[in-house]
Design brief:
By secondary structure, the chain is of the alpha/beta class. It has two domains: 6-180 and 221-248, 3-Layer(aba) Sandwich (Rossmann fold); 183-220, no CATH class. It contains eight helices and seven strands, in the order βαβαβαβαβαβαααβ. Helix 1 crosses helix 8 (223-233). The termini are far apart. This is 3-hydroxybutyrate dehydrogenase. One of its GO terms (biological process) is monocarboxylic acid metabolic process. Belongs to the short-chain dehydrogenases/reductases (SDR) family.
C-alpha cells in the first residue's frame, strides 16, 4: 500500500463500523475508533491491535457539539478520512413514534454527520486532502413502512453529500455515500424482532419476505464488501468520484 491514512470511524464499537475498521486496519491504515460506548470502541481497538494493526479508541456522541469539540482537541493525529457510520433504528408507525426518538435518529444520522464533517473539514483543507464516506442505506433511495425517521435521515445524507461535494470541489476532498441493503449486524438482528411485531410475521418470514425478497441476489451484504468499497473511495483511483451514492443492493433498485 502506497499511503497510510488516518481514518476516523463513528459507531465503530460494533456492526458495520467495527467491521470496516478491522478490514481497513488490516490494509495498513491507522484507525481512530469512536463510539458512544467507550468500552465497545476500546474492544474494537484491542481487536485491531491484537491482529497487528494500529488503532486508538475514543468516546464520541455525534449529537453533541461539546463531545465533538473534545474529540477534535484530543486527536492523536490529523484525520485524513472520516467514515460517518454511527446509527440507530426505531420501528413504529408515525402515530406511535415518540417524537423524542424521531429527533434522536435525525440528530445522530444526519445532523451528527454535518457536525463532525464541519469540525474536520478545515483540517482537511489545510492539508490539501480529505475523504468523507457516509454509510447510508438502501433506505437512502427507497422507503419501508414504520421507518419514517431512519428513511428521512438516510435520504438526507445523499442531499448533504451533493452539497458538500460542490463546496469542496476546489480541493482534493471527496464525499460519497455508500448505500447497502441489509448487513447482519446487532442493529439488524433487533430490527427483525421489531419488524415481526409490526408486520405480524415470524422472524424467519421477516428475513425472507422483507429483507431478502426485494434483492434479486437474495443475500446479506458483508463487512468485507463495505470495507472494500470504502477502500476504493478513499484511494487515488476515486479522486474524481464525489457526491455520489454507491448502491450495494443486490439488484433491488434496478427492478
Amino acid at each position: 500500500m502506497s499511503q497510510t491514512l488516518n481514518i476516523l470511524i463513528t459507531g465503530a464499537g460494533s456492526g458495520i463500523g467495527a467491521g470496516i475498521a478491522c478490514e481497513l486496519a488490516g490494509q495498513g491504515h491507522a484507525l481512530i475508533v469512536t463510539d458512544l460506548d467507550t468500552s465497545a470502541a476500546e474492544a474494537t481497538a484491542r481487536r485491531i491491535q491484537a491482529a497487528g494493526g494500529q488503532a486508538t479508541a475514543a468516546a464520541l456522541d455525534v449529537s453533541s457539539e461539546a463531545s465533538i469539540d473534545a474529540l477534535v482537541e484530543g486527536l492523536p493525529a490529523p484525520v485524513d478520512v472520516l467514515v460517518n457510520n454511527a446509527g440507530l433504528q426505531h420501528v413504529a408507525r408515525l402515530e406511535d413514534f415518540p417524537m423524542e426518538k424521531w429527533d434522536q435518529l435525525i440528530q445522530v444520522m444526519l445532523v451528527g454527520v454535518a457536525r463532525l464533517s464541519r469540525a474536520l473539514l478545515p483540517g482537511m483543507r489545510e492539508r490539501g486532502f480529505g475523504r468523507i464516506v457516509n454509510i447510508g442505506s438502501i433506505h437512502s433511495l427507497v422507503a419501508s413502512p414504520f421507518k419514517s425517521a431512519y428513511v428521512a435521515a438516510k435520504h438526507g445524507l445523499i442531499g448533504f453529500s451533493k452539497v458538500i461535494a460542490l463546496e469542496t470541489a476546489d480541493c482534493d476532498i471527496t464525499i460519497n455515500t455508500v448505500c447497502p441493503t441489509y448487513v447482519k449486524t446487532p442493529l439488524v438482528e433487533k430490527q427483525i424482532a421489531d419488524q415481526a411485531r409490526n408486520h405480524g410475521l415470524s422472524e424467519d418470514e421477516v428475513v425472507e419476505q422483507i429483507m431478502l425478497k426485494p434483492m434479486p441476489k437474495g443475500v446479506f451484504i458483508s463487512f468485507e464488501e463495505l470495507a472494500g468499497i470504502t477502500a476504493f473511495l478513499i484511494g487515488p483511483a476515486a479522486r474524481n468520484i464525489t457526491g455520489q451514492a454507491i448502491v450495494v443492493d443486490g439488484g433491488w433498485t434496478v427492478q
